[in-house]
Design brief:
By secondary structure, this protein is α+β, with helices and mostly antiparallel strands. It has 6 helices and 6 strands.
Length: 221
């Protein structure tokens, strides 16, 4: 082999070749990020649709029975004998009612699925734990819950609130807040759950930089 050929073999990549590789890598990364953005956007739309569906089912139930789901005292007589009745005080303020909301809605035909109304599985009013047999899942395998309380971090009074469930990325909740409300984590009808303020917000806003994948939002009306 000549000296010239040995020199070319040892010279490595040219600047043009390196530039081409960097451009290709940039295009690949751009495609990955764009694809992730599209996936996130689809997830936000899905959660928004589910929350809107829950609200619509709630209002339709109240219009038909003149009572809120879970709290309806005659659910076993007017909906289904398997339905667990509430106390009729207008608040989901017991474990039985927090579990019963999904059972009553499903048995009345306002949502799909089958739920057992088990008070033992639904957790506390402020907590986000539940089971698949009692509460519907969100797209991140957490559980939607409705409870009477003030878990929205900026709230001062109690109300019936929809909790999005755990495992929600902070960026997803920020986008959802923008679609449903004012985009600010501590104000308005959609807020961060008070137990997740320190890990999912900064200075009252959703903390995008944290990239926290386990946040919870609260919808109040």
């Amino acid at each position: 082999m000549s000296k010239c050929l040995r020199y070319r073999a040892a010279a490595g990549f040219t600047l043009v070749e390196v530039a081409i590789v960097l451009v290709i890598i940039g295009l690949i990364l751009g495609g990955v990020f764009k694809g992730q953005a599209l996936i996130d956007s689809a997830r936000v739309r899905s959660i928004q649709s589910e929350l809107t569906g829950i609200q619509s089912a709630w209002l339709s139930f109240a219009d038909r029975y003149r009572a809120i789901p879970g709290d309806f005292a005659r659910a076993d007589l007017q909906i289904d004998s398997a339905a667990r009745p509430g106390n009729g005080n207008g608040r989901l303020d017991s474990a039985g009612e927090r579990a019963g909301v999904w059972q009553q809605l499903a048995l009345a035909g306002f949502i799909s699925g089958s739920f057992d109304g088990s008070a033992a599985n639904v957790g506390t009013a402020g907590g986000v734990d539940c089971t698949a047999s009692t509460c519907p899942k969100n797209p991140f395998n957490g559980y939607y819950k409705i409870a009477y309380g003030s878990q929205a971090a900026g709230s001062e009074s109690a109300a019936n609130e929809i909790l999005t469930g755990r495992q929600m990325p902070v960026g997803i909740l920020a986008q959802l807040d923008t679609r449903l409300d004012d985009g600010v984590a501590m104000t308005g009808r959609f807020q961060v759950h008070r137990d997740y303020v320190s890990t999912c917000t900064r200075n009252g806003n959703w903390d995008h930089a944290s990239a926290n994948a386990n946040c919870v939002g609260v919808l109040r009306d």
